[in-house]
Amino acid sequence: MKNAMSTPCGAVRRTATALTLLAAAAMLVACGGGDKKGATQVAAKVNKEEISVHQINFVLQRQPGLKPEQAPAATKAVLEGLIDQELAIQEAQEQKIDRDPKVVMAIEAAKREILARAYADKLADTVSKPTDDEIAAYYKDKPALFAQRRVYTLHEFSIEAAGDAAKNVTALVQAAKSSDELSKQLTAASVKFASRVVTQPAENLPLAMIDRIGSLAEGQSLAIPSANGISAVFVAAAKPQPVTAEQAKPAIEQFLLNDRKRKLVADEMKRLRGSAKISYEGQFAAAAAANTTAAAASQ
């Protein structure tokens, strides 16, 4: 949250830097020669194949940390890397490696992944940004994250217990006045456990736990059922470090926007599944039927 709460100007500066870098790189390559070939956007030829400025720029776009003054060196490095790549591709084709079934499947899998991701990205781009009222409402609804934000020192326990033993352990956690007392009681009862002390701000806690831990005072504890037994948390210290609405606004806006995108993509995939004819075959047919029956029974 700390980085996410920084001023929105940071995103503007990063975008401007990236655009400046790309412009500088394009000029360096396109203006490398005085003849007409400089305007063809060809950066190099490897045997009969061409490497274009657009290929270089595409790679540079995936290196957002570069500064404008690094453009000449970065452009040259990218071009040399593309030349090496092209040489390897040509040799692979010469040896007919591109026809290897495993390679063909890998290429097809990469193509499918790229297309599916591009569709999801295009869909997500249609989402509108949250309004100021929505941002303000989220800030007000999450005091433990913002107005009443604290940095916690927590003593965490992972306790092995099942059935009645889990109930007994929960009772021990609730009755213990300190983490040391709980450790002694668990040891005396021959209960296996692991513990650690961590210091972290509210935003680093699991989202579902923020409000529950936020309601605890120093010295209080919480017992939560887990896959292997019981997870216990003692609040050893809680230092107030509130965040103002203005400071939190960029992070809240980004969170709400990302959440909105995620939901839109999930809903669209659900719609597509509902309108598509999908049949499971072979060994997958029985499992699919069982899942359908279980889903119907749970409704």
From TrEMBL:
PpiC domain segment(s): 130-250
Cleaved signal peptide residues: 1-32
Residue ranges of the TM segments: none
Keywords from the UniProt entry: Isomerase, Signal
PROSITE patterns reported for this sequence: PROKAR_LIPOPROTEIN
Gene3D superfamilies hit by this protein: 1.10.8.1040, 6.10.140.970
One Pfam family hit: Rotamase_2
GO molecular-function term, one example from the UniProt record: peptidyl-prolyl cis-trans isomerase activity
SUPFAM superfamilies noted in UniProt: Triger factor/SurA peptide-binding domain-like
InterPro entries: PPIase_EpsD, PPIase_PpiC, Trigger_fact/SurA_dom_sf
Protein's name according to its UniProt entry: Peptidyl-prolyl cis-trans isomerase, EpsD family
Species this chain originates from: Leptothrix cholodnii (strain ATCC 51168 / LMG 8142 / SP-6)
Record lineage: Bacteria, Pseudomonadati, Pseudomonadota, Betaproteobacteria, Burkholderiales
